[in-house]
Known about the structure:
about 90 residues; alpha+beta; single chain
Amino acid sequence: MNFFNLDVNAKTYIDSLSERQRRLIVGAINYHSLTAPSRTLQYQVYMGQKWQYPRLADFSVFDGACTKNEGLKPIATFSAQSTVKTN
Length: 87
């Protein structure tokens, strides 16, 4: 079950990933969709080193501490709209 909508280009990109990468990204989008109901959020995907663990929802994903502040460039950028409704 997903809590978001994607455009065709974002879906095509996500579908092109390995199962592990796809599940990590979909999990992150679901998490952020649940914490930001009805909002459209922009996602930037970065590829880290093999020794690094995925960062999907810690503070560094908001301030760019491990990504753009380190001079890395995103390998993909897309938006997803949360389908979660607030009461």
